[in-house]
Amino acid sequence: MKIARFSRIGFILAAAGSAVGLGNIWKFPYIAGEFGGGAFVLVYLFTVLLIGFSIMIAEMLIGYLGRKDTVTSFEELAPKNKGMWKYGGFQGLAGLFIMIFYSVVIGWIFNYIVTSIFSLPATVEEAEITFTTMLHTDFITQLFYHTVAFIWITYVVNKGIKGGIEKLNMILMPTLMLILLGMFIYATTLGAFSQALEFMFSPDWSKIDSNAFVTAVGHAFFTLSLGMGAIMTYSASLEKHSNIVKNAFWVVFLDTSIAIVAGLMLFTFLYQYGGGPAKGPGLVFISLPAAFYEMGIIGNIFAVLFFIALAFAGLTSSVSLVEPMVQYFIDRFKWSRLKSSLSMGLFFYLVGIIALLSNIEGFQEALTWGDKSFFDWVDYVTAAIMLPAGGLVMALFIGFAVEKSRVEAVMRPQLRGAFEIWYFSLRYITPVAMFIVMLSLMGAI
Ligand code: PHE
Fold this sequence. Notes:
Layout: H1 8-19, H2 22-34, H3 38-66, H4 70-77, H5 82-85, H6 93-118, H7 124-137, H8 139-158, H9 160-188, H10 193-201, H11 210-223, H12 230-235, H13 244-273, H14 283-294, H15 297-333, H16 337-357, E1 368-369, E2 372-373, H17 374-401, H18 404-415, H19 419-441
Antiparallel strand pairs: 1-2
Helix pairs in contact: 1-9, 1-13, 1-15, 2-11, 2-13, 3-4, 3-10, 3-11, 3-13, 3-17, 3-19, 6-8, 6-15, 6-16, 6-17, 7-14, 8-9, 8-15, 8-16, 9-13, 9-15, 10-13, 11-17, 11-19, 13-14, 14-15, 15-16, 16-17, 17-19
The chain binds phenylalanine (PHE).
């Protein structure tokens, strides 16, 4: 069978498509808001550069050397203890778990594209009622759009790396960047732009406690798509002699700049037309539509374009969340792509319905444990435990398990003088940092 490989630009767009997702446009602004902006943003940027970039290189390297699904790649690269290391490859499961709530959120976004065409809420209160009514009572609408998301994602994944995933990203990613850039330029002309700048970049260190710190680190992982085999699976389809460091740089650069551009734009609109940076997950679904309303007709256009961009960001990430396990069943069990895509799709679709129900009145109670609904649990367990654990395993794997000579042969020519620093950081700095993050997120310290 001929193996389809990404083109260079196709790979960068696909990996950036994976990284740029709901995390950048939906999550980042609201958690930055929750933790008071500036200082939080700087901790996040620092983590992205210090830990994120080096793990991104490690994850790409495992895929590039392994050339197979994540489990087989781990197995083949481990000189000893193959049986144990192969479990490292099951980090791909995290992607399917993330999809359980991710697909539901994409469904909300589809719904908002359609409703924004006709009307926007006139006040924040009205916006809040619209959103919470949908969330807590409107099962049918949510189910309908969750189904649309499932069909679209499964269709693209079924078309494979080249004909599905690369194509999707080649169209959606440039469109998304154009939309965001256009809206960002508009935002720079508004008076509140300087307030947004101030909010995002002037640090107030008193707001940073250990909780803010670990949230920033956890988010750096989530936003870069690290620790669940997405980047690894894509990298298995890299051309021979690809420059991993350059690719990793582009992905980190695009992901970070898009988060900053989106954040500045949103906060400008919220300062100018709304009540400033609102808190909580409702930011883009509640405060933002009300701010768009204040802008008049251009607000309507912006609202539709914004939710389209958000949907595109979510869809390009979704295909990368599903692909690792799809590839696993194809490689290991010789399933057809159709069977594999459909089975993985049905998994997140059906469990996603339970997540959806866990927000619906009448079902909420039965589907809530402790202080979190099933929906929130999935979000929490994946971001707080699974991704950092995946990152930890990869750092240890490249740092200690794979022979240094093998790592060096590929990476030294690309990293040159920085090779030893990168290697040292993977061996000692990253594992310790990841371990601390996991412990604190689990509430152990
Ligand atoms: N990076 C994506 C986002 O920011 C989410 C994601 C996580 C995608 C892990 C793939 C793997 O929304």
